[in-house]
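Let's practice the habit of predicting before peeking. Look at the sequence and jot down your guess about where helices and strands might fall. Then scroll down.
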Amino acid sequence: MNKLDAISRRGKGTRALVRLIKIAITGCSACMLIASSSHLRLGGMTYALDDNSILTGPTAASVCTPEDQSKPLPFHAVLNEDEILSLFPEEKPKPPVYERPSLSRPDGWTGNAVTTDTTGKHLLYGEAIPPRTGMTESCIPTVSGRVPSSYFSEDTVFIGNSLVVGMQKVSAIDTTYYATIGMSVNQFFDKPLVASPDGEKDKYGAPVFVSPAEALVRCDNFMRVYLMFGVNELGWSSITAFINQYEAIIDFILAVRADAVIYVQGLLPVNEAVYQSANANPLDCITNARIAQFNERLLTMAQRKQVVFLNPGEALADASGQLPADATADGIHLNGALLRKWADYLYTHTVEDVDPALFYEDNQ
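Done guessing? Here is the structure:
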């Protein structure tokens, strides 16, 4: 592969830089200190851009001034593609803007069509979006009729930690999962945790991994997003930091897909006795009292952001408010029967989708 072409695909800024480099290659004023079309002088080093053109020493063609010609020229024999591309950070894709075709964009209106007011309620061009069926003032949905399996399989994404991974492994719900063991809210934007949904492969044919945020941008045809975070954040000193990052995730999802319905799932209870006995070094923060604090803040956040709050733990806990001891091996993670019970809760606690006809993607 021509590595200059690879660099040019990193974004508009780097494409412009590559054009300057190519001009320098073919021109006589090589201010970037280019030796040839296969060599790049950058940051005091000379790089070979093609594997078959390894530099063997300084060359007069690579310098612009007599002073430079009299000095030894440091060089790097060859950079592989990943090393070359690392010199040019990739520009992150910008989320699409969604418009309402039945309304004209107001004069002077900039940014996304969907905004929020000071109370967190969603506005469309400054007008309140009508409440959805099943959405209560508390943001906790009423018990609904059981939705068909296609409700999840066609337009839904589940994002979260190892608890969500468990649901995926036992096929409790047939849907799209962007979940991995240990995922926390501060990994959502930047950490490559999930296989790219567009099927991108690396040069060895292995899946390219991207962050959950990028996965949503690459495959933005979802209508519902179910979020499950918190168990890996129980040890954080600040619940507010957790909530702030969670809100940033919600804002991002709505920027990518303004008509998405977001379901925030509360933390599930644990069995404290099983957890203490199953772990050699149990953490003091893994308690149902701490979980209750997190869930209280998550509910308040959901009401502020006007997204749906679900509390599946109420369907999973025993009479004492803990996970049943025979349903968890480590006090935290669920066995197959309880995972399917969790899925049953989700099947019967839904709200009406936002009418997608209100929006369209502006590709201008």
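How did you do? Residues 132-362 form a domain with the Rossmann fold fold (CATH 3.40.50.1110).
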